């Protein structure tokens, strides 16, 4: 492979080809430390032309490619295998702003720009890019697109699929698809860019994107509310939507088990503990005090067990910090079997009740940590056992997953609402995805990547298997 690596260096420059273990190490281990790979090398191209040349070279030598952005995948979607024969292509050098058009509310950026950088550029221009994730300081736009990322504001603004106007993509054979259109309406045939959003790098390598911007909200009303059941939380969601329309930006829920964990590791910061906590936020133009008063007046007509309203930006950030601390807090408390599931919002109460009953019948010491984006039906449904049983937790992972996913699909849901499929869930996708949909996915993969060189071993096996 020395001739191949010399050719890679000729394309991107020798300093941008990493081969020593101490240099490649950050690219070989996934975010949750479940998958450890061994790449042939890591190449760091700086332009779309260099990416195209690399993919042409990989086709010529039949070398598999693993695209990697910020390496924040929780499913091993950006981790190479252990063969030592896969080239990781890292995109951090493709990080330029290409255009921003405030009159058209659009921005064009390269795929290696972090989400936080895009947010900052939008804010500096008096606009909002609404995608918001816990990893926004390190995750990259290419990865957000490849997993169709959602985050905290999907309820109002949608996922990356809804936020994307155009893409530039290098196909597996090195051809470049130039579709960086900023149009919102185009009925000229199939919208082929949609093939690459959510494809986890298996159909091509995204190098740039044109994204939607929105007016920057000047008013926020944020409340931490307590209700006595998950059904009450979903009823509150429906009522808020009816009362405030698309000013309802976010609606998060957390079970009492989540709240007790937060109290354990962040004592004194929770305003109260109720069977279910809701973090709801309205955003709009105008004055925050007026919007907050509208929310207070409306809440006075509802059945709320307890509640606090953020009266300042500092209060608002304090409430958000509690929600954003949930994942790290659970990690501090020990291992868990994590599920990034989605069901229709209306089905959340039935799913929670039925799934807990089914799990407890088989695993009596189960502890369920349920929280997430109830406004769009995306729950983080995480399973552990009470100690000392938790030491054997992962011996039961397949059995736990089968119970959870069976009920998810019984409620017309999905096993991957936000974090993708990757290596972690590929075999479950084969079990639950509609067979015809799977075959269509394989057919598209076969057309675009007949040799199966793009990110093999993830949601579809390479070569149309």
Automatic annotation (TrEMBL):
Cofactor list: FAD
Signal peptide: none
Family annotation (InterPro entries): FAD-bd_oxidored_4_C (IPR004113), FAD-bd_PCMH (IPR016166), FAD-bd_PCMH-like_sf (IPR036318), FAD-bd_PCMH_sub1 (IPR016167), FAD-bd_PCMH_sub2 (IPR016169), FAD-linked_Oxase-like_C (IPR016164), FAD-oxidored/transferase_4 (IPR051264), Oxid_FAD_bind_N (IPR006094)
UniProt GO MF annotations: catalytic activity; FAD binding
Domain named FAD-binding PCMH-type: residues: 35-216
Family of this protein: Belongs to the FAD-binding oxidoreductase/transferase type 4 family.
Keywords: FAD, Flavoprotein
Domain of life: Bacteria
PANTHER family: BLL6224 PROTEIN, D-2-HYDROXYGLUTARATE DEHYDROGENASE, MITOCHONDRIAL
Organism this protein belongs to: Aquitalea magnusonii
Pfam family, one: FAD-oxidase_C
Protein name: D-2-hydroxyglutarate dehydrogenase
Any GO BP annotation: respiratory electron transport chain
